[in-house]
Amino acid sequence: MFRTPARLRALTRHRAIRRTAATVTAAVVLVLSAPTAAHGDPGAPMVRAANSLPVVIGNLQSWLMGILAAVATLFLVLAGVYWATAGGDPAQVERAKGALKNALVGYGLAVLAPVLLQVVRGIVGG
């Protein structure tokens, strides 16, 4: 196959762009993967954590319960929409029942979240 000079210039340009992009990507990866030292005031007291473990677990419990309740509510709404739009279609009714079961499981997990986190607190010794 004979290539015209314009086609050869375009191929050369595309290869140069690819080579440049690969070089820049490699440089960015190299810079971001290099370990660096954290600089701080040597005279300042060192704070290892913003909160104690019981506070972190309590915050985690609140977030977990909120997220589980929100997802369960979403599934409950979806179940209602599926059921309302089923129009007697057995497959759509089964889909609605599945979404309703998922909502109930989500609400159950949200209620059990304090118990589960209490088990975690007991394991980690908080």
UniProtKB/TrEMBL annotation:
Keywords: Membrane, Signal, Transmembrane, Transmembrane helix. Residues 1-40 form the signal peptide. It comes from the Bacteria. The chain crosses the membrane at residues 64-84, 104-124. InterPro entries: T4SS_pilin. This is Conjugal transfer protein TrbC.
